[in-house]
Structure formats: C-alpha cells, structure tokens
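Exercise: predict the fold of this chain.
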Amino acid sequence: MRRNNAGVTLIELMITVLIVAILGAIAYPSYQAQIRKSHRTEGKSELMQIAQQLERCYTTSNTYAGCASVALPRNTHSGYYQITAPTQSDTLYTLNAAPQGAQAGDTTCGTLTLDQSGTKGSASADPTVCW
C-alpha cells in the first residue's frame, strides 16, 4: 500500500516561518529608518518656512527681534518636531527643530538647525546627510 503525502510536514512549516522571521528582522529596521527620514522632511520644511517669515519681517522692520508673525516655540503639523529659537537678536537668529514623540528615536540627525545666513546643521551627523 502506498500513502499519498499531499500536505506539508511540520519541519517544512517551521523552516518557512524561520525564513519569514529572518526577513522581517532585516526589513523592519530599514523600514523604521525610512519612516524617520520622511518625518525629518517635516522638520526641515517648517524651519525653512519660519526662516522665510523672519526674513520678510527683517525686510520691513530691519530686525529679527519682535516679529509678531513668528510665534515660537511651536510644534510641526504632525508633532514630530518642536521648533525653538534659542538665539534671536536684531541681526541674528538660530532655529532648532528638536525631534519629539516617535521621531525622538532619530539618532542619525537629532536636532536640526538653521541660522540667518542659511547655514544648516544637525546635532548628530554631517549636515549633508540630514539636509
């Protein structure tokens, strides 16, 4: 008598599950890094918008201080970054975008910075990587 083996053995199933788990373990960190990178765009965009507002204010009043159109600190639209201006005087400003919430795990770039001369920076990495 001959038996038909039409199903899968437990060993085959376990090997398949193991392969899927290994692929998931490799893919998930890469996915998370890509998500952080896309959220970083929100912080950069907000920094550029605030810098534009400050420049418009400077052209009309000849000072960065006291620009009513720029209320700081504030969070970005989705809340991934908090924008602050630790340095702001009549002729100078530095804007910081500090990661918040889920974005706080962004150790690649950390806090993004932008100043009145357009100099872009980051706390953790080469600015060309983050900007």
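Check your answer against the key: The chain has one domain: 10-130.
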